[in-house]
Amino acid sequence: MIPFEEAKRRIEELRKEIDRHAYKYYVLDDPEISDVEYDRLMKELTELEDQYPELKTPDSPTVRVGLRPIDSFKEVVHEHRLFSLDNTYSAEEVMQFDKRIREALNVDSVQYVCELKIDGLSISLKYEDGLLLRGATRGNGFVGEDVTENIKAIKSIPLRLRKDLSIELRGEVYLPKDVFNELNKVRAESNLQLFANPRNAAAGTLRQLDPREVSKRKLSAFFYQIVEPERFGLKSQSEQLEFLRTIGLKVEPNFEVADGTEDVIEFWKKWSGLKSSLNYAVDGTVVKVEDLHLQQELGYTTKAPRWAIAFKFPAEQATTKLTGVTLGVGRLGTITPVAELEPVQLAGTTVKRASMHNFDFVREKDIRIFDTVIVEKAGEIIPQIVKSIPDKRTGEEQRIDPPSQCPVCGGQVGKEREEDGALKGLNPACPAKLSRRGQFF
DNA sequence: AGAGATCGGATAGGGTCGCT
DNA sequence: AGCGACCCTATCCGATCTCT
Predict the structure, then answer these.
(1) pLDDT digits (tens, 9 = 90+) for A178-204
(2) Do residue A276 and residue A326 come from a single domain?
(3) Interatomic CA–C1' length for residue A62 and nucleotide C17, angstroms
(4) Residue (of A77, A79, A78, A83) closest to A299 by Cα position
(5) A331 & A413 share domain
């Protein structure tokens, strides 16, 4: 057994070495040593810490993964709200966004930063004096869940920053495509249910109660925002990204500064073609005003910043058959026609149903029962019917008419006002307030 | 006064996990 | 096996605001 003083010195040396190699490997993507050598350093550190447990520290690379499952996730009230982003799907909408900003700032042109939008789940991290203090999910933006133990099990997230800062960060946790494929291969061999897509698998993994399981799933994370960046003397979004990288966090490397909308659209077009070459799922680009002062000037709506917008890649589409219509009755009596579809694979999930919102929608799109329809997933999540294909009709199709009575209570239905889209059950005592769905057709 | 933007609330979808 | 909570976000709709 080596003497205490010598062990202490060697432990500090090893931690520095390991942190440096982890940074080169995870953040810079430029490893200096092999995995085997890295593991050897880790093993030596673990053994020394076992000999002298009093030398263990909370930021040691050996304490990444907790030893046992936690009971439950605690609520975290976010000190600073996590906003979402407004979405756009076309060059025209981006030009409107640009126009809105130029008018609000009263300038001729604005510089933007284009980043790739990672398809994962957003998290908020808090470091104090350089030490990772807490990691939380977004939740509803105001209140999330404390997933600190699971965050610690993500190897590309440093337990200690390369500067002793007290800082709050925003990023996106994701499951790399190759890891996703490998996981599913193993699950298939064990006859386990396969994960449907990397995003859902990542979301599920982060809510595992056992950090040891999280560690096995090999999540990763990119960071893109600092809360109150002016505290660190930062002036622009691209500077902010570089800063994140220097303090030890992984940043998606393909961002670009753009002069005006032409560059923005160019970037989007380029990556709609190149996205499949990446080892992580991206569902679009994020366009942000480069100048942080201008960002501050533009401010926020209640849902999203005015200085940023998501510019999504086109949704995948699929063709299927509409087999029936179910009527949903909401708590307010609103009657919603829901399309029942022949199950079809789309963007990693099986689509069986799609809301048609109201009967005006059905009439405008001329959707009929047994029609062949094109479905897509808005934002990769919500399935919706794009249109019907009348050419494929056989004559057996049936029109979808608004019901003459409430499917739940049989009561009177109607629109509260002529120009309304929504059709409502008018019986105030309708049991739909308790049980909600009625069958039809 | 009227148009347009923006607000929150309600409702919608598929998938995963944890619990029973 | 089934259920509820949670993850993510789209759309609708009535209300409220801001601008012309």
Answers:
(1) 888 788 777 777 767 667 677 778 888
(2) no
(3) 55
(4) A83
(5) yes
- Residue A388 makes CB contacts below 8 A (sequence gap 6+) with A322, A365, A366, A367, A368, A371, A372, A373, A374
Question: How far in angstroms lies nucleotide B14's C1' from the CA of residue A360?
Answer: 25
Domain that holds residue A12: 4-64
In the structure, how far is the CA atom of residue A260 from the C1' atom of nucleotide B16, in angstroms? 41
A258 domain-assigned? yes
* A248 shares a domain with A207: yes
Among residues A43, A56, A117, A433, the one annotated as catalytic is A117
Please indicate whether residue A387 is annotated as part of the active site.
Answer: no
A105 and A240 fall within a common domain: yes
Protein CA at A421 to nucleotide C1' at C13, angstroms: 9
pLDDT at A56: 87
Q: Kindly report which amino acid residue has its CA closest to the C1' atom of nucleotide B7.
A: A302
pLDDT of residue A436: 33
* The pLDDT of residue A440: 33
Q: How far is CA A59 from the centre of its chain?
A: 28
Say which nucleotide is closest to residue A340, CA to C1' distance.
B13
Torsion of CA A89, A279, A182, A203, to 10 degrees: -50
Residue with tokens 């939380």: A136
Provide the 10 A C-beta neighbour count for residue A64.
Answer: 18
Residues of chain A with pLDDT under 70: 66-72, 191, 193-194, 196, 301-303, 315-316, 330-333, 347-349, 378-382, 408, 414-441
Residues in reach of strand C, judged by a CB distance below 7 angstroms, are A 84, 87, 121-122, 137-140, 144-145, 200, 203, 207, 312, 334, 357-358, 361, 378-379, 381-382, 384, 416-417, 420-422
A347, two tokens? 């963007």
Give the number of domains in chain A. 3
The enclosing domain of A51 has a CATH number of 1.10.287.610
User: Which has the closest alpha carbon to A18: A50, A66, A62?
Assistant: A62
Sheet holding A167-174, edge to edge: A131-137, A121-128, A167-174, A220-226
Are A306 and A324 in the same domain?
Answer: no
In this structure, is residue A74 part of a structural domain?
Answer: no
The nucleotide minimizing the C1' distance to residue A207's CA is B17
Report the CATH number at residue A388.
2.40.50.140
